[in-house]
Model the fold of this input.
Amino acid sequence: MSRVGSIRERRLVTRSARIITNALGGSPLSRLAQAGRAPVEWYPGHPRSLEDWRRRVASARSVGPWWEPLGEAIGSSSGAAAERRARVIAGQGVVVTTGQQPGLFGGPVYTWNKAVSALALADALEAETGVPVAPVFWAATDDADFAEASWTMLSRSGGADRIAIEATMPEGTRMIDVPLSSIDSCLEKLAAACGSAADSRPLEFARRAYAGQATVGSAYLGLLRAILEPLGITVIDAAHPAMTVAAHPVLLRALHERERVGRALAERSEAIGAAGHVAQVPDVADLTLVFERRGLLRERVPRARAAVTAATAAPGTLSPNVLLRPVVERALLPTVGYLAGPGELAYFAQVSAVAVALGLEAPVALARWSATIVEPHVDALLERHGVGIDDFADPHAVETRLARDAWPAGLASGVAGLRRDLAERLAAVRAALEPLGGMAPSATVDGAARAIEWRISRMERRITAAVKSREAALMRDLGTIRGSLYPGGMRQERALNLLPLLARHGLGLLDDMKAHAAGHARALLGVATEPAVAP
Done:
């Protein structure tokens, strides 16, 4: 049986996790973009109605063999992704894109939220327009941020653990060129987090991808393809020579037009600041938006050396920075929109300035779907202790509150009575001092009151700490909830690894996520949303 067939045919009945759609959040600039209230020149071409979308699709439809130069970067996949891509090619269709830099074992939940967002929007757009639409995930294996790519969080009973691989290459090395290290121990911890999994395939895919001579980038790429291609999502390897060679003309243009691009970015940053916002990507005045790879190291090309680099750089040795990458992607693919996270939405206000300066079409950024996945055992603990998900945004408040609830009978009322008595006696002292006038300033009494209150509060903290120590089961339950919903103090989708959840609830969990993302996709199209799937 093929890999595609195995995923599609083995349906599991263990999918009972609750999926909650969240507001995407982000900076004020990002929220302004999400609300559609940002200046149109910052976010040009954004469709607001279904008719706008039909026009957008018509203008983006492929008129040439865009896929031919990118074939090897797309890979030789078969099954759902290849079939959907073939329909787009044959029907002069369009693509919906998203992407993410590598993360250990696929990175945090939002990597997968992005992927199902693109899939849901592609499905909705195809249904509404009749034009073939394929979702494409841009795997940024050419990224050099090892600190971001090297770790992930795994939830467990009582909390969460951060696992990470060690650096083996100098800073500035692309993830596609960084060998894996310490991966065996990380795989063991991943397996332990999966437990007695109902679906063994996610762990099998991880072991297969993170094996042999794999690198940080190639392992990430392999895992994404194993899980996303059967859903119909094409995964592009951004570091593949086919991609970097195809991008070369746009990168040369960025080098030649460096001064125009620099002025455009400076003006846009000034406009963003004048509107009370902060440009997401700081401008570095003496550098271009192009990286040059020399050996294994990738460095930004200085403006002073841009002309020489443009004349001498071999095709495949240049790559775009974060502001130029969306412009390159739109130049190479018939893209109608990019599903972006909150930080990406903010910096797309600068991307449009780059595109206009280069005389290229500005890509359209759309807010991706955001969600929290609540597993049944976590739901049971929330109900048992009468707490909600948002209670865990503060890492200590809920523990303190529940520990106080567990104080011995009469203790809370006794402390409250102590404070009342203190307030009454201090009031009496102040009243008695009034005849003395300025001889005994009220600040003296106030200082004594603060000192006594500090000692009472310190006593409460020590009592609460003792109760926490005694209430081990309660603290373990709260740690379990926090480890699943706010691991490391971060929102679940920004830190938690999804593979153990897929192992416990089946790969069909991704279908459930897509079903919930469908309402978000239809809202982006400006059409009536369908009822969400019942949890």
About this structure: Residues 26-45+242-367 form one domain. The chain has 23 helices and twelve strands.
